[in-house]
Amino acid sequence: MDAIDRALGELPMPPYVTAEDVGFAVRALAVHVAEQWPEGARCRNDRAPHPCRLHRWGQRVLDERGLTEEQVRALLAEQEATLR
């Protein structure tokens, strides 16, 4: 955990996970992916230790929604196609 994580803590979960929240969560996972650095895995977007706050938040939202790994992979593939 880096200093920002210690200072700010986790991002709060929405009270009810909506379809819009799922879209934001998928976007967070697509943008905040791991890259290998000499000191270990870092977030491609903000260089925080991976998984960063937004990646963890996105994963928690998708877990709360009850999506399977296969469903998450399909949503990420769809998101990647949109980002291109």
Topology:
Layout: H1 3-8, H2 19-31, E1 34-37, E2 40-43, H3 53-65, H4 69-83
Antiparallel strand pairs: 1-2
Helix pairs in contact: 2-3, 2-4
> What is the number of domains?
1
Overall helicity: 55-70%
The side-by-side strand order for the widest beta sheet comes to: 1-2
Rg calc: 13 Å
Along the chain, the helix and strand elements come as HHEEHH
Based on helices, strands and strand pairing, what is the structural class? mainly alpha
Strand content: 5-15%
Number of helices: 4
Count of DSSP strands? 2
Main sheet record: 2 strands, antiparallel
Cα-to-Cα separation, first versus last residue: 31 Å
Q: What overall geometry do the principal axes of the alpha carbons give?
A: globular
Which residues sit in consecutive blocks of at least 5 with pLDDT less than 50? Answer: none
Taking all residues together, what is the mean pLDDT? 91
Structure, explained:
By secondary structure, the chain is mainly alpha-helical. It has one domain (3-83). The protein is built from 4 helices and 2 strands, in the order ααββαα. The protein has helices spanning 3-8, 19-31, 53-65, 69-83, and strands at 34-37, 40-43. A two-stranded antiparallel ribbon has the order 1-2. Helix 2 (19-31) crosses helix 4 (69-83). It is globular, with a radius of gyration of 13 Å. The N and C termini lie far apart (31 Å).
Short structural summary:
The protein is mostly helical.
Label this structure with key terms.
single chain, 84 residues, mainly alpha, globular
